[in-house]
Amino acid sequence: MAERRSPAFQATDKLAFLLSLVPYLMDHDRVTVAEAAAHFGVSEAQIRDAVNLIGLSGVPGDTAAYLHGDLFEVDYDALDRGEIVVMNFVAIDDSPRFSAREAAALIAGLQYLSALPENADRATLAELMAKLSRGASDEPTRVAVEQSASDETVALIRSAMDERLRIDFDYVNAEGEQRRRTVEPLRVESVDATWYLRGWDTDREAPRTFRIDRMSSVARSTAPVTHRPDEVPLSDSLFQGSGDDLVVTIEVAKSALPLLADYVPEGAAATEVEGRVRTSVRVSHYSGLKRLLAGMSGVATVVEPEAARNAVAEWAAAGAAQYRD
Questions:
Q1: Reported CATH class of domain 246-324
Q2: Domains of the chain: which residue ranges?
Q3: Strands 276-283, 300-304: parallel, antiparallel or unpaired by DSSP?
Q4: First-to-final CA distance of the chain
Q5: Tens-place pLDDT, residues 295-314
Q6: How would DSSP label each residue in 172-229?
Q7: Model pTM?
Q8: Which fold has domain 7-94?
Q9: For an engineered disulfide with 299, which of 69, 143, 182, 256 has Cβ 3.0 to 4.6 Å away?
């Protein structure tokens, strides 16, 4: 009885299938017909037909004739034994390739991505790194991206979230105060190179945000969580205000105003003053204000209250004194 052919070999799809099969065979020096059929979800007969067609394909030489080396070369003896071995690939090396330096940069980026907890499919990333290494014009420089302590902490938080457990940790706030916290983890997010935990603070009975690099002695609790992530409303903004926040008036360059979007209260007035925008920001304490303005030297100025101006001025003077010493 003839084997029924799957829809994958309809005329409109055959070319796309062959274009996918050739790179697959390049990545596998020796693969069985059954493995290839399982990979593409087609019958073994269809795989054999495709391999036979590949063996009749190539690029003619200058004489417009197919000479030795102008065709894909298939080991038909191996094919009879149920294995696919292509001994010569045509025109593949003529395509543009990444330089060794370009491939090394991409591989380093993929190594970083594979270390992030949310990228669970590390096998796919590893396969892509191997392809980049093989397909470069020269052997890429060997690079490695070292994991940080935050990566390990993020992984532990993720596991606690999966098991719906609370976590305990020591936390140092922006004012340098340390205390033990118990939190029900809801979400892990990153901004630039900094990781944050958003969770339900059991002491304050409210959602709070914690910088993961300020957490230490992190441990999973045996106590189960009482709040599900879909039960606690979290704003799109990473930083959430509270009634205890301090409001500070600043003047900032118009181009830098988007950098403060998370700190500007909803509905805050914004007026232009001598080419700058005067508006207000919300901070939990003046230590947070100093940290915020540290990265905005020359583009942001504190206007009021006087206590905020003095706090920033004293902090800047202390920093300048360190350089003089």
A1: alpha beta
A2: 7-94, 100-135, 149-231, 246-324
A3: unpaired
A4: 92
A5: 777 788 888 888 888 888 88
A6: E-TTS-EEEEEEEEEEEEEETTEEEEEEEETTTTEEEEEEGGGEEEEEEEEEEPS--G
A7: 0.45
A8: Arc Repressor Mutant, subunit A (1.10.10)
A9: 256
